[in-house]
Every structure is written in structure tokens, then in C-alpha cells.
Amino acid sequence: MTLPYELKLHTERIGDLALSIATLADLDRAVDELCAEYEQRHADDELERDLCPYFGVVWPAARGLCQVLARLRTELAGRSFLELGCGLALPSLLAARLGARVTASDLHPDVPVFLGRNLEINGLAPDAIAYRELDWRAPDEARTYDFVVGSDILYEAGHPGPVARALAAHVAPRGRIVLADPGRTHLQACLDGLTALGFRHEVAVESVADAQHDRAGDAATREVFVIVSRRDDA
């Protein structure tokens, strides 16, 4: 399938591993072009928002999540793994490389095309990562996983409650939730929701390079929160 975007290829380095990722060449231009198209078609704002290609770059929180997953590599091998709101699925690609049984999930229709392309680029089999269309706002009969992860998925006021319930519903009884966030307003509400559902949290801060603002010889860094949550009785 041909994607309606100009793409570029760059390398993400996580510890001793490197992954090549096809991303949007210019996120702002891709969003502007979509908005112009929807204005011409008089499409509704909600549909435009859901289909905006914000997933098409690697955000700092995904890098922070990957740094933590790399340190858990011996625990990931052979374990079931679900990424919510995967976007370009960098954490899923890393987990697959580390031997996890990975399912990536999202709602944007272009995500599985990017996923297939990035699996091929990295020499991974097409079935190395299962893809699942999953809307955390809608009821779902949940299969559970040893690891349920997400990065920067709390960017709207309506997200914390549904995200907390989706994370809790999909994690196995003795499994772990790993949530990475750049410190958005809605993070605490999600953690409060998980606490009310019987989870306890360990919070760490990861410093990551932000390639969206890198300059030659002067890579900007920023901090992201990475929260590991377990059930109180786990």
C-alpha cells in the first residue's frame, strides 16, 4: 500500500541495539495537508483529529520507554507484550527484537502499514508482531499480557479514565504496566485511576534525546516519566 506521506528513514539507538524507522519527513506539513483536505471536504473536526498523523514521528516518551525495556531484556524474552496506541511502534519493535511475543495496537488506519514497513526494514518477519485494532474508549473483551505498555497516550482530557481501565483490563494478574509520559497534565489522573483499581507505582525519570529538536553537534535532551505499575497483591 502506498502511504500518502513523504517519508524519511533514521536510526534509533537503544543501548547496544539499533532500529531503523521510517517516519514522516515533516510532521507539520503532513498535518497541514490533511487539515486542508478535510476543510475542502467539509469533514467534521472529530474525524480530522482522529486521523491526524501525529503517530508518524518517534516522540521522546517512546525513547524513554525503550530505555527501560532494554534494561528489562532478560524478563521480556518469551513474555507476552501489548503496546497501546503504538503509533510507529518503536517499543514493540524493540520488544520483538528482545524476544517478547508482541502485539501492537492502535486505531489509526495507516499504523499497520507503517508497522509492516518497519518490520521489513529491520529484517523481522511479517508475523514477528501481531497487530490489533484497539480503541481504549470502547468496551473490549480483554486478552491479558505479561507486559502492557504505552508512551505519550494521555494527550486529551478524556483519556485518563479509559486508558487506566484499558491498561488494567489487559495486564495479567502478575504482569506489569509500563507507562511513559512527558509530564502531561493528565498523567496524574491516569495514575490515580490505576491506584483506585488496585495498582501501586514506581516512578523514574529518563533523560532522552529529542530528535525533533536535534541540531548538528548539539542534541537536545528532555526528561520523561516512566511508571512501572503492578497490582497490590502481585
Helix-strand topology string: EEHHHHEHEHEEHEHEE
The profile of the biggest β sheet is: 7 strands, mixed
The CATH superfamily is known as: Vaccinia Virus protein VP39
CATH topology: the name is Rossmann fold
- Specify Rg, calculated over alpha carbons: 17 Å
Note poorly predicted spans: none
Quote the beta fraction.
25-35%
Mean pLDDT: 88
User: What is the tally of helical segments?
Assistant: 8
Determine the fraction of residues in helical runs and give it as a percent range. 25-40%
Please state how the strands of the largest beta sheet are arranged side by side.
5-4-3-6-7-9-8
Corresponding CATH architecture: 3-Layer(aba) Sandwich
Number of beta-strand segments:
9
Distance between the termini: 44 Å
Domains counted in the coordinates: how many?
A: 1
